Amino acid sequence: MESLSMSAKLNKKYLVPGITQPVYLMIDLEAKQPEAGKSRQPLNLGFVIDRSGSMSGEKIEYTKQAVQYAINHFAPQDTASLTVYDDEVQVLYPAQHVKFKDEFKGFVSQIFPGGMTNLSGGLVAGYREVEKYAAPDRVNRVLLLTDGLANRGIIEPKRLCGKVAGMKKAGVTVTTLGVGDDFDEDLLTKMAEQSGGNYYFIDSTDHIPQIFAQELQALLAVVAQNVKVSFRCADAVTVTKVWNYPPSGDRVVEIALPDLFGADRKIILLELAVTPSAEGALSLGTVAIAYDDAGEKLEYVSYGLDLSAAATRDRELLEQPEEQTVMVQVELNRTAEAREEAIRLADAGDFDAASSALKDRYHTLDAMECLAPEMRPEVALELRHLHEALAKIDAKDYDANLRKKMSYHNYQRRNTKKS
Fold first, then answer.
1. Which alpha helices (DSSP H) does 132-174 contain, by range?
2. What pTM does this model have?
3. Above 70 in pLDDT, residue 284?
4. φ and ψ at 273, to 5 degrees?
5. DSSP character for 137?
6. DSSP structure class, residue 322
7. Which residues contact 95 (CB under 8 A, 6 or more apart)?
8. DSSP letter for each residue of 68-126
9. Do the beta carbons of residue 107 and residue 80 sit within 8 Å?
10. What percent of the chain has pLDDT over 70?
11. In principle, which of 130, 269, 304, 311 could form an S-S bond with 288, CB 3.0–4.6 Å?
12. Angle at 252 between CA 249 and CA 255, to 5 degrees
């Protein structure tokens, strides 16, 4: 049985011949839940922990609890390392198979807060430990936790993102975890997305163990790696926009996705410009997927789906309702774009314009009628996020916490993650 199932839907299947029309294509990937007792890929994780002065108190204590919880779930075939950083970087536990969990936890208990934040130094040192055991049949990942801004070593966002891009090419991904209100959410988001890892905004310190557990459970259930989706355009079709994941190519558009884990779901949305030349059946192109099944044999899987529509002048066919599941995703992604613009405007102090951008999206989503039951919770959640942001922006109460929440909601939308 394939680890991933793929489906493709169009918002409409009947088009007018002779004119260019927009068509939306939703590619939906769903990962199967691994069977109970089935062997998994070994973990090769590097824990990289910020121990700067601002991590004192509950932050560092909850972080210790989280790392110790994670190590309890390691098996003898798994490898782990522990790197800490403030002004200086120290590898407390070099990469090795976790045979003695209490020994690892003992080093965790020795983490105490210190000085500044050499994020780049900690990241590179942690990567080098993971690199020692990196292999295609392992889950190779750095888990980087911080609560502050990079103010030692490499501090330029572009150079830091370049570092993680290089790590990805070497087969190592980076998950970033930002705690509190003082870290750079734009940087941590870009680092995670460019490396194929995850990003978490940890609003409350006591949520640190919960978030670590969430990430660990995902890594323990990876079902597909090196996932690539492509769309080959037919002659009448041009891709004008891709939401959610960065594309490459023109007539053949390719999208690389992060690892998928059990019961995971990813949605890719494309806007097409379609120009049928005459009435009749119309080929739109082919959607294909290729990935390494994360089972014992790391089998390579690939298959495709042909897409078609019809050109007609039959008014009754042309006036058929659009596919609701596709249009809901279109509107949710447009809302994410509006929220990004609202962040930019609020950063500049233009709260009225920021509020207007969000209100427009709120009214659009709120006016969507006759939603199927399975779509209502997602739209309702988005309306709640918009309402909460609007209340604070209208009160001129735009702060670092709200900005992080808005940015995090957009990250979750792009990566089809649940709030």
1. 157-169
2. 0.93
3. yes
4. -105, 115
5. T
6. P
7. 44, 46, 79, 80, 81, 129, 130, 132, 133
8. HHHHHT--TT-EEEEEEESSSEEEEEEEEE-S-HHHHHHHHTT----S---HHHHHHHH
9. no
10. 98
11. 304
12. 65
150 pLDDT band, cuts 50/70/90, is confident
Question: What's the rounded Cα separation, in Å, for the pair 212 and 415?
Answer: 18
Q: Give the pairing of strands 265-274 and 280-293.
A: unpaired
Tokens of 182: 């003082």
* Whole-number pLDDT of residue 287: 98
Pairwise CA distance, residues 376 & 369, whole Å: 10
370: left (phi over 0), alpha (psi -120 to 50) or beta: left
- Classify the C-alpha dihedral 14-19-22-26 as positive or negative: positive
Residue with tokens 């190779």, as numbered in its chain:
140
For the cut 90, the answer to whether the pLDDT of residue 260 exceeds it is: yes
Burial of residue 278 (CB within 10 Å: 0-12, 13-18, 19+) is exposed
Distance of CA 4 to the CA centre of its chain: 17
Give the containing element (helix H, strand E) for 190: helix 185-195
3-class SS of residue 173: strand
Do 219 and 143 form a contact (C-beta atoms < 8 A)? no
Rounded to whole angstroms, the Cα distance separating 164 from 174 reads 7
Average pLDDT, the chain: 94
Q: Is the pLDDT of residue 263 over 70?
A: yes
Mean of pLDDT values over 186-201: 95
CB 45 within 8 A of CB 143: yes
Confidence of residue 378 (pLDDT cuts 50, 70, 90): very high
Cα–Cα distance list, 145 to 56, 107, 201, 253, 342 (Å): 14, 17, 10, 34, 28
What are 148's two structure tokens?
A: 């502050």
Contact 4, 295 (CB under 8 A): no
Spatial distance between the Cα atoms of 363 and 368, rounded to a whole number of angstroms: 9
Rounded distance between C-alpha atoms, residue 349 and residue 371, angstroms: 36
H or E, element range at 217: helix 208-219
**What is the maximum span of the chain, computed from C-alpha positions, in angstroms?**
74
Q: 285-331 pLDDT, tens per residue?
A: 999 999 999 866 678 999 999 999 999 999 999 999 999 999 999 99
- Report the share of the chain in percent with pLDDT over 90: 85
From CA 81, how far away is CA 100, in angstroms rounded?
13
Task: Render 357-368 in DSSP notation, one character per residue.
Answer: HHHHHHHHHHT-
